[in-house]
Amino acid sequence: MRLTPKMFQTLLGREEQCKGTKEIPGLPRQVVWRNPEEFDEKSGTPLGIQTGGKMANPVPSACCVVLAAVVMVYAQRHSQLDTHVQYERLGADVTMQCGPMDWDAAVTWTANGTDIDESHLNGSRLVLRNVDLTHSGQYACYEGSSWHLKYQTYLKVGTSPKEPVLMCRSNNYPKGFYCSWHLPSPTYIPNAFNITIMHGPRELICEKDAFPKNRCHIRYLQLFSTVKYKVTLTVTNALGRNATTITFDEFAIVKPDPPENVVAKPVSNNPRRLEVRWQNPSSWPDPESFPLKFFLRYRPLILDQWQHVELSDGTSHTITDAYAGKEYIIQVAAKDNDIGTWSDWSVAVHATPWTEEPKHLTTEAQVAETTTTGTSSFVPPPTTKICDLEAVVGSGAVTVSWAEGLVLAAVGVLFI
Length: 416
What we know:
With about 425 residues, the protein is α+β, with helices and mostly antiparallel strands. It has four helices and 27 strands.
């Protein structure tokens, strides 16, 4: 029977339980478990049978010796084998050799602790066809009936990297710029990136960020330089490598972050106006020396077409052509006055122009009616009786009850 890692953990637990002792009533509890094979020279008895307060049970002690031996052998066998890591491409056919075993040796392969069917074996070798991501995992090979572990490896299936996407930008000009990168598709295995920044013949240091990991910062050593920057990014993994290079001027990559804290409010008593205010991006270090200009766009929600206004200075603007009572969506972008490109749009804000509250109009007749109704007492509406139990017939007529009338009517019918 093969000793699996789960069985090994069970044996470790059993070995710990073996260290229990049998307590003898009336004796002090000070004796700990000892190996029963050790001999006490003074008393002339094995230490497995103690006389100082506790006595080890001989049968469990013997079991402990066996379990300890099994655990030791298991640990020695597994400590002698290093776990290899094997990388293979998606869709490839993979062959694994069972260590030093001969081709015709009887072996058993497992994947993540589960036995692999013999149909996947070519002699003692394991053959996997057209591997995909589900084949990644721990593989082990055991020798025939002895179940000695002969080989183990961790298979990782993936792809070589495609050309990386590289971008450099200065959002805090004139302090410096940063470069960020990513792969257009995952490789499913670890990748290593190396970036090199050259300014003419001089290589610049790129300080990598802790988060995100795919970005680094470079400080400008010389402002207003006409020498181009050259950035090369190389990506490597166990299945291949790829690289990309970009070249740019200092001014071309200047792009501020979007304006912050954009607020839009209606203007009192002006049904076609909206007042918009914002702040410079906090990442822009010196707006006095390097001022920004702004681009405002707005539209009512019922339309798809934007209206635009470019502002050379200031951080506010009043929209004067809004549709009364219509909700608007508003955004702002920023750009250095002289160099670079426009930022992305700010977070959209919504606002509706001022509208006059409706007034309730009343006439003089409505006022008089309201006053009369308010001072008069309640008078129930008149009712019309369809059938009265007592009726008056002519002036001075005799009152005839409803029952007597029915009797007279019946007699009248008899005489007809």
